[in-house]
Design brief:
Number of helices: 5
Largest sheet: 8 strands, antiparallel
Structural class: mainly beta
Distance between the termini: 89 Å
Number of domains: 2
CATH topology of the largest domain: Glucose Permease (Domain IIA)
CATH architecture of the largest domain: Distorted Sandwich
Number of strands: 18
Oligomer: single chain
Length: about 325
């Protein structure tokens, strides 16, 4: 084959490949929130073909059959304040839903959200077979309409807990030709976790979405052992407690606590004395979220006035030694 023909063929193919690349969007962060400080990715796409779950790193931040990315806010007080959900790329609004209540599916049951599992949501068509879907938005917050063109970063609505949701978050599903694609792996569906990756995220978004196996959801001090429903509501994070409070409890809700991990909590009184020191037994399972606490009941007429400090450390056995994974510090003033 003549060399000139090969050169011509290469020239003809280059524009085709360039056009093909242009149809694949680079997705920006779909939420206006400080990642790793306020918001976290609690669940990724599931790669386990059986009843178990595995995320793209072969970690356990997924659940069976999950087809998207869950970016969570800590509790419902953030829903009340309003955390914007953003278009991950420019496109045309292909559909919306609003009017679904923000209530945990644990309370309503899955039958109540059958057919509306996405809750309040938005679907965007990015052309070239690419779409993004945004789910569980706050009731009454969707502010785009079908047929409307939107730019990357444009506000679609607010984070909520509508539909099949147990915690406040935005669920993002990316699809190519109606097949779910993991934006952390893309552009084609990966056959198994740990496969080579070519992320669909923009450079900026990718830097903000660094993988974290475990981290903090909520923490604080309380005068009583908190309930999970109260933590979800954003309660028991008082900056002060009364000197006659019946109890003084330091509590932490963490995500991604793995098998073999242990949690240690200490509480120090204003005079520097450690008044509570509790270490859990190594976990026998993986926890999507786990709440632990340490504290004590008041035995004196009043608590000592001043600042009490709580320290939480999630520890993992590495090389035969317990190694800190992350640490949480909180304090409360008793007066």
């Amino acid at each position: 084959m003549p060399a000139w023909f090969l050169l011509l063929l290469a020239v003809l193919l280059l524009p085709l490949r360039t056009a093909e690349a242009q149809t694949q969007p680079a997705f920006d962060l779909p939420i206006s929130c400080e990642m790793g400080i306020v918001c976290v990715v609690q669940n990724y796409v599931d790669y386990d073909p059986g009843p178990g779950a595995a995320d793209y790193t072969c970690g356990l931040l997924a659940y069976n059959g999950h087809d998207g990315t869950d970016i969570r806010v800590p509790n419902m007080t953030y829903v009340a304040r309003g955390v914007p959900v953003l278009a991950a790329a420019a496109g045309r609004i292909a559909g919306t839903r609003d009017g679904v209540r923000d209530v945990s599916v644990r309370e309503t049951g899955k039958a109540a959200v059958q057919g509306i599992e996405c809750g309040n949501g938005v679907l965007i068509d990015h052309d070239g077979g690419w779409t993004t879907q945004y789910c569980h938005m706050r009731m009454g917050s969707v502010q785009v309409r079908t047929g409307q063109n939107v730019a990357a970063g444009e506000v679609l609505g607010l984070v909520g807990m509508s539909g099949n949701a147990e915690f406040p978050h935005v669920h993002l599903t990316v699809r190519f030709n109606n097949v779910a694609v993991d934006p952390f792996v893309g552009p084609l569906p990966a056959a198994a976790c740990g496969a080579p990756r070519a992320p669909l995220w923009s450079v900026t978004a990718q830097a903000k979405l660094a993988y974290t196996r475990a981290g903090l959801l909520n923490a604080g001090f309380a005068a009583a052992q908190p309930l999970t429903t109260e933590i979800l509501a954003g309660q028991h994070q008082e900056p002060t407690l009364a000197r006659d409070a019946a109890n003084l409890v330091f509590w932490v809700e963490a995500f991604g606590v793995g098998t073999g991990d242990r949690s240690r909590l200490t509480v120090t009184a204003p005079n520097g004395r450690v008044i509570a020191d509790s270490t859990t037994e190594p976990s026998t399972q993986h926890w999507a979220s786990r709440m632990v606490y340490a504290g004590l009941r008041r035995t004196d007429p009043q608590w000592m006035a001043g600042v009490y400090r709580g320290v939480y450390v999630l520890e993992r056995m590495v090389g035969g030694a317990w190694t800190p994974v992350f640490t949480v510090n909180r304090q409360v003033e008793v007066r």
